[in-house]
TrEMBL record:
Protein name: EAL domain-containing protein
Domain of life: Bacteria
Full protein: residues contained: 646 to 925 of 970
Organism: Undibacterium arcticum
Domain EAL: 23-278
Length: 280
């Protein structure tokens, strides 16, 4: 009936056809999105739990679709990954963020690190390090202010390669590298020690259950203890409630990020928030 060969021919039900049509439309929209300047970077604050100061942000990509409004990265990043476009778009994000940090510095904003999410495909390209170095050079940004987030599963896909690549990037002066979605994959602890990383990001799925779910409590406490024993910081993501915040503070978490502080914001709104909190 069907041949799943190199062409990937398949039979589709009507629903699948609509799905495919939507998908194709999305793909072609995405292909034009860069040149039409439809991508935007939002910034979500990261707060130091010790003093309540906004120490930086995570850069989160948005697609301003002409008809559909803001499209979530959960919907389009996987497509960019599959089509390979993520390399170009990822480079655009890096460049946009480095330029933004520079302009905040020029405006004498309090010092901030901004974290960029890397995709698996970007990490696998062996020119990633050159690309980052070139962008830092072009924007004149001190590499200490650029932070990178790589997921646990990206690292464990080929740990030896990842160690090598991250070492090269670090040698360019990018010293802040965080492991994203920590706890959702399977890290080998012996490798964790070898990665030149700076922080573990406690995944939202574990933070969600705080402060009541016993499994989530155990996992969060274990991740914090593990991180600190490896001299890494812990950043909790997806913090929404006062109870979660109190738990994380009492258990020694270093940094939080979540709706309790702010949703991801356009650059100007983020800058305004930083100024407001700086004055108080
Ligand atoms: P992530 O890296 O785990 O990012 C955290 C996600 O949690 C973001 O979703 C953020 O908006 C959301 N979030 C933060 N705090 C809260 C909270 O308190 N409650 C809830 N319900 N959600 C919260 P977002 O912006 O939709 O991004 C989804 C994913 O898309 C990211 O997950 C990341 O994997 C990917 N992504 C976003 N921007 C980029 C990018 O520039 N490059 C790459 N490769 N991936 C990106
Ligand atoms: Ca992230
Ligand atoms: Ca994350
Ligand atoms: Ca996550």
């Amino acid at each position: 009936v069907k041949q799943e060969g190199g062409n990937g021919y398949r039979f589709f039900t009507p629903e699948m056809n609509t799905l495919t049509a939507g998908r194709l439309e999305m793909e072609s929209g995405l292909r034009r999105a860069l040149e039409r300047e439809e991508f935007v970077v939002y910034y979500q604050p990261k707060v130091d739990l010790e003093n309540g100061v906004i120490i930086g942000a995570e850069a989160l990509l948005r697609w301003k679709h002409p008809d559909r409004g803001l499209v979530s990265p959960g919907e389009f990043i996987p497509i960019l990954e599959e089509t390979g476009q993520i390399e170009q778009v990822g480079e655009w994000v890096l460049k946009t963020v480095c330029t933004q940090i520079r302009s905040w510095q020029d405006a004498a904003m309090p010092s901030l690190n901004v974290a960029v999410n890397l995709s698996g495909r970007q990490l696998q390209r062996n020119n990633l390090c050159t690309t980052i170095a070139r962008i830092l050079e072009e924007t004149g940004l001190d590499p200490r202010f650029l932070e990178l987030e790589v997921t646990e599963s990206m690292l464990m896909h080929d740990p030896k390669y990842a160690v090598d690549m991250l070492m090269q990037i670090r040698a360019k002066g990018v010293v802040h590298i965080d492991v994203d979605d920590f706890g959702t994959g399977y890290s080998s602890l012996s490798y964790l020690k070898r990665f030149p990383i700076d922080a573990l990001k406690l995944d939202k799925s574990f933070v969600d259950g705080l402060p009541h779910d016993e499994d989530d409590i155990a996992i969060c406490q274990a991740v914090i203890a593990l991180a600190h024993s490896l001299k890494l910081r812990v950043i909790a993501e997806g913090v929404e409630s006062d109870d979660q915040l109190a738990f994380l503070r009492n258990n020694g978490c270093d940094v939080i990020q979540g709706y309790i502080v702010s949703r991801p914001l356009p650059a100007d709104a983020f800058a305004q928030l930083v100024w407001e909190r700086h004055q108080n």
